[in-house]
Amino acid sequence: QVQFVESGGTLVQPGGSLRLSCAASGFRSEDYAVGWFRQAPGKEREGVSCISASDGSTYYADSVKGRFTISRDNAKNTVYLQMNSLKPEDPAVYYCAASLYPTLGEKPYDYWGQGTQVTVSS
Known about the structure:
Order of helices and strands: EEEEEEEEEE
């Protein structure tokens, strides 16, 4: 089955850190740009970060710039999202997906995973 599998979501305190993993299954993620998205209850899904396939260029939403870092380990067929200084507005289900080009808009993306829940609470 061709998809991503996200993991790493859990409960963390405000100001804490978390690393999410996005493991590709059935295809080589290094051939694609990979994006991280999130959806909070009652809100639309939004792009958080993405990384290109060609040169590893990275892109971030303004709301996470300076706090989140996306990276990829092609040997493990996995993309990561390091989240630092987590804020009360960061809780959501986080998803990853693949696209032919890097963008924070979700329309071009495919191979969506089931998501992983991030909760920020003291």
